[in-house]
From TrEMBL, chain A:
Coiled coil: none annotated. PROSITE patterns: TYROSINASE_1 (PS00497), TYROSINASE_2 (PS00498). One of its GO terms (molecular function) is metal ion binding. InterPro entries: Di-copper_centre_dom_sf (IPR008922), Tyrosinase/Hemocyanin (IPR050316), Tyrosinase_Cu-bd (IPR002227). Keywords: Copper, Metal-binding, Oxidoreductase. The keyword Metal-binding applies. This is Tyrosinase family protein. Residues 55-72, 219-230 form the Tyrosinase copper-binding domain. Belongs to the tyrosinase family. Transmembrane segments: none annotated. It comes from Streptomyces antnestii. Gene3D superfamilies: Di-copper center containing domain from catechol oxidase (1.10.1280.10). It holds the Pfam family Tyrosinase. PANTHER family: TYROSINASE FAMILY MEMBER, TYROSINASE-LIKE PROTEIN TYR-1-RELATED.
């Protein structure tokens, strides 16, 4: 049955509670940390001679679409009524938004060590110990807006700049692609200062703490952020019906290091072309 | 969309690709400048600012104390050849003796496991950037 992913700001207290409970249950069973590990494993740079799939590559969109589906299915095995909400960071921009409330994701980290002190994912609650982290720290960390060098969340204008590009992606199909919706939303630029962080990347930077590093999945906001990124791909397809929804469609000169639309994408070996539409599985409200 | 249902209870597991452990353990830096930069220009590298120019991406070993943390970077002696035909260098970087994995980008810059979103022109600058972000935290004994 087709289910709905809702805007997090529209969730009732009961819906938030069910989502949080399912996430905590997944953590208790050890499965949540498998998702953290998988994201770490697939974050490969585009300059290291490797074959990046999850980031800095055209498959940024389909890879994370499938990653979210795996996570959502794991949640639904615990509570079939749960789906992954999305966070529209162009609208809910305040550190005091209900997103960061006691009954949902909890708030900012404290100044001294960036430890999250409120909500269900605060270390003190005993339900959220970091097991797969870059550091030995066992508590979830956040540092909203990086106070020592302040940065804002992406604006509507910045997102519109990415959405306007009618090309999905372009050569050289990596973090240096100057044209294309994919890299503009993912957010790699050659800019300086805060200008170098765009859209998706800027949100990771704005939250800070765990969201900044390899183990970003440790912060459950990761899923709400990427649910919105997923929605943006669908919205972009609607706005550019004449454009190819994914590029490169097939292997060609210059695409040797990326997965083309008709090739199997690891680790699931599904073709990106099979992940372009999702209307038979879920829709966005 | 055609999506097969995973067996219940099976978490995500990477397969069929080179794991990042293999790829990132020793980051490959393209030694674009190594052959043309005079040895004299490489002296004093460890004392330069994080905004070093791109030539430093191909630089030599470094070791320094930065904000009270001991940073060390070692480049493999024998450059490898890559499919791009550029000479390449492998890097091992540690902070207080613990491994800090670096990742190189297509533009020749570097990212670390601590900060996946800010690129630096050299391994040393990336290591300093990681220290800036670490605060009081210490890296795991064995990197992810």
């Amino acid at each position: 049955m087709v289910y709905t992913r809702q805007n997090q700001s529209a969730l009732t207290a009961a819906q938030k509670r069910r989502f949080v409970s399912a996430v905590l249950a997944l953590k208790r069973k050890g499965q949540y940390d498998d998702f953290v590990r998988m994201h770490v494993e697939f974050y490969v740079g585009d300059g290291s001679g490797g074959h990046p799939v999850a980031h800095m590559a055209p498959t940024f969109m389909p890879w994370h679409r499938r990653f979210l589906l795996e996570f959502e299915r794991a949640l639904q095995r615990i509570d079939p009524g749960v789906s992954v909400p999305y966070w529209d960071w162009t609208v809910d921009r305040s550190p005091h938004s209900s997103l960061w409330g006691e009954g949902f994701l909890g708030g900012n980290g404290r100044r001294s060590d960036r430890r999250v002190m409120t909500g269900p994912f605060a270390y003190g609650g005993g339900h959220w110990t970091i097991k797969v982290g870059v550091t030995e720290g066992e508590f979830l960390t956040r540092e909203f807006g990086r106070p020592r060098d302040p940065i804002e969340l992406p604006t509507k204008d910045e997102l519109a700049w990415a959405m306007r590009d009618s090309l999905y992606d372009s050569t050289p199909w990596n973090s240096t692609s100057s044209r294309g919706f994919r890299n503009k939303v993912e957010g790699w630029t050659s800019g300086v200062g805060n200008g170098r962080f765009r859209n998706h990347n800027r949100v990771h930077r704005w939250i800070g703490g765990h969201m900044l590093g390899a183990a970003s999945v440790n912060d459950p906001v990761f899923w709400l952020h990427h649910s919105f990124i997923d929605l943006l791909w669908s919205r972009w397809q609607r706005q550019h019906p004449q454009s190819a929804a994914f590029l490169p469609a097939t292997k060609a000169a210059g695409t040797e290091r990326v997965v083309a639309g008709d090739e199997p994408m690891p680790p699931w070996d599904v073709k990106p072309s099979s992940l372009i539409k999702h209307g038979n599985l879920y829709r966005y409200a | 969309m055609d999506v097969q249902t995973s067996p219940a209870g099976v978490g995500p597991a990477g397969r069929g690709v080179v794991s990042r452990r293999t790829v990132v353990r020793r980051v490959v830096g393209v030694a674009l400048a190594a052959a043309v930069v005079p040895a004299a220009a490489l002296v004093g590298r460890a004392f330069r600012e994080p905004r070093d120019d791109m030539k430093d991406a191909a630089g030599g070993d470094f070791e320094e104390t930065y904000r009270g943390r001991h940073i060390r970077g070692t480049r493999a002696d024998a450059p490898m050849r890559t499919h791009t035909a550029h000479g390449a260098a492998l890097w091992d970087v540690t902070v207080d003796g613990r491994p800090l994995h670096l990742m190189s980008r297509a533009d020749g810059s570097y990212l670390t496991m601590v900060d996946h979103y800010q690129s630096f022109p050299t391994p040393l600058a990336a290591a300093r950037g990681a220290v800036d972000e670490l605060g009081d935290q210490i890296l795991r004994r064995h990197a992810l």
